[in-house]
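re: ur question from earlier - yeah i can do the single chain one, its not a big deal. heres the input i used so u can compare w yours
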Amino acid sequence: MMLALSGCGTSGPGSAAALRRIVGTDLIGARGATAEDQRRIDRTAVGLCAGGVWTRQECGQHGGGR
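and the output i got, formated as tokens:
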């Protein structure tokens, strides 16, 4: 039974720290109501693009409406 369960689970213990490095903490508290909020959202999107979370095409669409 333990052998079958050994392959299940989540990523290793460092995964939350790695995600925090990629995404950052700028998004915490941002509501999009102010220019500073938008800059915080943009910085988060940049981290996601740099971390390879989104495709190059998806990252190119970020901010394209401005």
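The CA atoms of residues 14 and 42 lie 25 Å apart. not sure if urs matches, ping me
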